[in-house]
Design brief:
The protein is mainly α and about 270 residues long. The chain is about 70% helix and about 0% strand. It has helices at about 1-20, 25-30, 30-105, 120-140, 150-185, 190-195, 200-210, 215-225, and strands at about 110, 115-120. The chain has a two-stranded antiparallel sheet. The radius of gyration is 42 Å and the shape is rod-shaped. The N and C termini lie far apart (about 95 Å). About 15% of the residues are buried.
Length: about 270
């Protein structure tokens, strides 16, 4: 197009120069000029139209390249944002694990009878021993008057009244860690496995019975979804038949889970 423009300007200059310097000959060649003009005008118009089409094509090509570049930039930005969100989630999650372990280590118990002090995760061994004793006492007293499941729920209620002060913060925080995993799009399966790995056998046993209690019903949804009792030592439950009190999905691939116990008496 630039060459055509230069050529057109050059020819125009030559024609005007010839018309001014050789005016008589120019007038005599008018007919020939009309012929040349009539022939060249359509050709030049076509060339002009072709140039416009070429310009439009080049603009569309350039726009297409720009669009592709913008898409690549947008994809790169999206990946960067996803990576940042993942890093933020990981940092928050591991900070929550640290806080959770700090809460566990801060628990302490004092036995008035023998003066023994227990702290940290060892407290859950004491907790479960006490729950077991409460259950056995209630079962012995009320087995002929009340249903087995009612005795179990009453036993955990009595246990909870005694130890709500020590365990309330523990349960609330653990519940919120699971909720954090459930609501975060950056959460993956291994995060729940890492959280489960923090729990001792006695913690899992207490969490099992907590999920059966009235205030632990919401927790049971997370227990089922994240297979919280995948490593629960079912042989150490208060009764073998208690396994049927929560959805089987909560046990995951637990090798100690015995499906034959489902529906059996306590």
């Amino acid at each position: 197009m630039f060459i055509l423009f230069i050529l057109g300007v050059g020819l125009s200059v030559i024609v005007f120069y010839y018309a001014f310097t050789q005016s008589e000959e120019a007038i005599g060649g008018g007919a020939w000029g009309d012929f040349i003009g009539g022939t060249l005008n359509p050709i030049l118009t076509f060339l002009t139209f072709t140039g416009v089409l070429l310009s439009i094509f080049l603009q569309r090509l350039e726009l297409g390249l720009s669009r592709s570049e913008l898409e690549r930039s947008a994809n790169a930005l999206e990946k960067q944002i996803t990576s940042i969100e993942k890093q933020n989630f990981e940092a928050a999650f591991f900070q929550m694990l640290n806080t959770f372990n700090t809460i566990v280590e801060s628990i302490d118990l004092y036995n008035k009878d023998n003066g023994m002090e227990t702290s940290g995760r060892d407290c859950f061994r004491v907790f479960y021993t006490r729950l077991n004793k409460i259950y056995r006492d209630n079962k012995e007293k009320g087995s002929k008057k009340h249903a087995a499941e009612a005795i179990l729920r009453l036993s955990y209620f009595n246990f909870w009244k005694q130890h709500q002060l020590e365990l309330g913060h523990y349960y609330r925080f653990l519940f919120n860690v699971f909720r954090f995993l459930d609501e975060s799009p950056a959460s993956e399966e291994y995060h729940a496995k890492l959280l489960r790995a923090q729990l001792s056998d006695q913690e899992l046993l207490l969490l099992f019975y907590n999920c059966l209690s009235q205030h632990g019903q919401k927790f049971s949804d997370y227990a089922i979804k994240y297979k919280l009792f995948d490593n629960l030592p079912t042989i150490r439950l208060l009764e073998d038949g208690h396994t049927h009190l929560i959805d089987q999905e909560a046990f995951g691939d637990n090798p100690m889970y015995n499906s034959k116990n489902i529906g059996s008496s306590f």
